[in-house]
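Review form for a predicted model. The reviewer records the input and the model, then writes brief findings.
Reviewer: anonymous (R2)
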Amino acid sequence: MHYSKGVVLSENQKAMATIVTMCCEQGRHRSVAFVEELAKRLSLLRDGADMSRSWKLIVTTFHRDLEALGLSPMVRT
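Model under review:
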């Protein structure tokens, strides 16, 4: 299982982690747009706000191809 750089999870958090990976093969940046929108929407639910159950939510984005081009991979938490 791959975790984004800069993200440190406890063993218990790793057992409960959900990793979402998107790929776009035609170079139209749809996967980047989707990941950014998903991260934005998940951030609105941070830490179970306004929900009947509470959880700890860590939203991190990492754009692999930016790193391959020598640019910052935009890791955000």
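Findings: DSSP finds three helices and no strands in the chain.
Further findings: Residues 30-43 form the longest helix (14 residues).
Recommendation: see findings above.
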